[in-house]
Amino acid sequence: MTESLFDKLRNAEMKLTASLMDTIMAATQSVRHMFGEIAQGTQPHAAPGELTVALRAMLEGRGASQDGGGMATPVAVADEGPDWHTLHAAVSGQNVAVPAVAASGTPAMTANAAAAAAVDLSKLQPHFPPEGRRSTDRPGAAVSGAPSGRRADEKAAAREATIRVDTTRLDQVLNLSGEIGLTKNRLTSLRADILAGRTDSETLQALDQAVSQLDLLVSDLQNSVMKTRMQPIGRLFQKYPRIARDLARQLGKDVELALIGEETEVDKTMIEDLADPLIHLIRNAVDHGVERPEERLLAGKPAKSVVRLEARQEGDHIVLIIADDGHGISPERIRAKAVEKNIISEEEANTLDDRQSLNLIFLPGFSTMAQASAVSGRGVGMDVVKTNIQKLNGAIEIRSEPGKGSVFIISLPLTLAILPVLLVLLGEQPFALPLSMVREILPIDHQRMQEVGGKETLVVRGEILPVIALSRLLGWPQLQQPEYGVLMQTAERSFILAVDNFAGRDDAVIKALDDFRPRGVAGVTTLSNGQIVLILDMKELLADLATHTDRDLRNTPARALEFFS
Question: Do 381 and 364 contact (CB within 8 A), yes or no?
């Protein structure tokens, strides 16, 4: 029936309306659930009767967009199960003969009732079959006692562990590996010449050229391997129009979700981890950001609001933009709400500029809604969004203009396999800090430090920030006064991390420690001189500091070296 609807729409025999689109989307969702049940080794359930009624009503021109008045024409509705043989053949690839099945009739339903069924599609819920029926069982066959949950979990895990790669990219990797092999042979030959005492300028020049060539090839190979993990972000974007549309209908708003840059490629792991933050930001834009049509008309705006979801690559970063043309966010209102909820004091609120005020929405427990609804208003969500973005080594920024709308800008690295870090020194021991959390580097003037509530603080551009020594976080004795500070920003707070010195910036290849990983350590990396460096997890370190958890990581680099040797 859905195919017949598509055929009529294609031939311009029917006009696409909101109610018709609702019916088609419900039918699509029902078919997806059927195939999902087959994939889990269970017999699919029939589509809900209300959906069948709605499809027939739409197909016969009696949908919710039509006038339901006048004489009621009976509509015969068949209680049809799924075309089991066809579905099973499609999934298994078998050539199964399809027997003719007679549909049993049900009592007639009037066109008005059918139209009502087409409207009330929000009540339709996916039906899940009882666990244990195998996909090879015919309808009505005995239920197998073998559990299918574990099989479904294994199949899902297998899907997560696999990725489709363009053969062109694999060919590039193969060609580069071949060239690296040739360069290695050249280096082996030059090594033999040098060991034999042939160290003339020509040999040394050839060695320099071979090393430079190897450096270029390894860099190209690294980029090519990274590209095999890249996937178009459009596969993530494609499910958001339905979410925005359903929520807008629920709230009585007219919203268009504009998708831009669906071809932009990002790391596959990042695509999976971005799903929830983007859903929350889109729902926030539809719920909080844009106005109802009548409010927009009074404000001189078009009745239909636009929420823009855009992705683009800028250098070695991916930029995601979620923008709306709604009423925007008032910094004054944000400050007043934060004071009302005792999140900040009135004195602190008076020191905040507009940018700092807008960033208050990322604090736990903050919400501008007077009452919580089924959609939002509980004060959870934006802090989780920022935390999840920072876990991806990214950053989120908000810009808003009252009356014109808001823009959320997410900046992410191209891949999670390489992490830009700032190398700091504690004595002679280097540690790596995620660069995404670093706002700036500044010298520490101990004469300007003040004690507030038993904690050392510094005032930076009117902002009072706590100073936390790295040695204190790690449980090391403080052998000297720290000379430098790193102004860092987590989802919960800003603070100054006091360190002895800096060793520069690096792009770290992260090596996971798995079960060996101590708290406060995200992983390790190796410097060009072979030294093992810990990549610190600042969130865990700060949490342990708040709970007075003791730690001593002095031996961890040595243990990590043993672990990887």
Answer: no
Residue 188 or residue 38, greater confidence? 188
From the list 527, 487, 531, the residue with the least C-alpha distance to 504 is 527
The tokens for 561 are 């070296």
- Of 437, 330, 355, the C-alpha closest to 394 is 437
H helices then E strands: how many in the chain?
19, 20
Tell the CATH topology of 233-413.
Heat Shock Protein 90 (3.30.565)
Give the mean pLDDT of 463-480: 85
Burial (0-12, 13-18, 19+ Cβ within 10 Å), 321: middle
Residues in the chain: 565
Helix or strand (DSSP H, E) at 317: strand 317-324
Classify domain 418-564 at the CATH topology level. OB fold (Dihydrolipoamide Acetyltransferase, E2P) (2.40.50)
- Which of 69-83, 392-406, 525-539 is predicted least confidently? 69-83
Q: How far apart are CA 474 and CA 433, in angstroms?
A: 13
The residue with greater pLDDT, 11 or 361, is 361
Least-confidence region, from 75-89, 302-316, 422-436, 493-507: 75-89
Residue labelled with tokens 């309808």: 139
Is the pLDDT confidence value at 145 over 50? no
Q: What are the Cα distances from residue 437, in Å, to 277, 300, 358, 440?
A: 18, 41, 18, 9
What confidence score (pLDDT) does residue 102 get? 38
Q: What angle do CA 496, 502, 505 make, to 5 degrees?
A: 100
**What pLDDT, on a 0 to 100 scale, did the predictor assign at position 369?**
60
- Mean pLDDT for 508-530 is 78
Q: Which two tokens stand for residue 426?
A: 């504690």
Give the DSSP per-residue string, 334-392. Answer: HHHHHHHTTSS-HHHHHH--HHHHHGGGGSTT----SS--SSS-SS-SHHHHHHHHHHT
pLDDT at 151 over 70: no
Which pairing describes strands 305-314 and 255-260: parallel, antiparallel, or unpaired? Answer: parallel
Distance separating alpha carbons of residues 434 and 541, to the nearest angstrom: 13
| Helix, strand, coil distribution of the chain in percent, nearest 5 | 45, 20, 35
What is the C-alpha separation between 501 and 497, in angstroms, rounded?
11
Distance separating alpha carbons of residues 325 and 300, to the nearest angstrom: 12
Average pLDDT of the chain, as a whole number: 77
Q: State which amino acid sits at residue 59.
A: L
Please state, for a pLDDT cut of 70, what percent of the chain lies above it: 75
Contacts of 69 (CB under 8 A, 6+ apart): none
| Between 347 and 553, residue with greater pLDDT | 347
Backbone angles phi, psi at 289, to 5 degrees: -75, -55
The pLDDT of residue 86 is above 70 = no
- The phi and psi torsions of 371 (rounded to 5 degrees) equal -135, 145
Q: What is the pLDDT of residue 94?
A: 45
pLDDT recorded at residue 554: 56
Q: How far is CA 119 from CA 7, 24, 112, in A?
A: 22, 12, 11
For the purposes of burial, counting CB atoms within 10 Å of the CB of 378, is it exposed (0-12), middle (13-18) or buried (19 or more)?
Answer: exposed
